[in-house]
Amino acid sequence: MGTILPYLTKAKEAGYGVIVFNPNFNSVLDDQEEVKKSRTKEAFLSKKKKSRGFFGKGPSRTRIPGNETPPKHVVYVWDHFVAKAKAKKLAIVAHSAGGSCTMALLRNREDDVLA
User: Fold this and answer.
1) Catalytic positions, please?
2) Theoretical Cys-Cys bridge with 94: which of 27, 80, 86, 98, CB 3.0 to 4.6 Å?
3) Using an 8 Å Cβ cutoff, are 71 and 105 in contact?
């Protein structure tokens, strides 16, 4: 179990709403057959790791509009989900690169985030 999962479970049990950002999810595979193959147990356990498609190696990928970079993803999720939520209070929990993404959010949406 990942270290964030117990934390999220406790937040939900305490009645908090939770939105998990994934700023590393910036693209999708173009070939759906490759997607299916990549989700098999065999592919997961395989020692051969395919490289990402942005440098001409591995399967072809398409950037997700509005989410092309980790900071853009965070701003997109803020604009489309968090800003529209009914919540009156907000806590942001960030780890590692999530901290710099949170700072990018503050630079881009300071008035909204701190309101």
Assistant:
1) 96
2) 98
3) yes
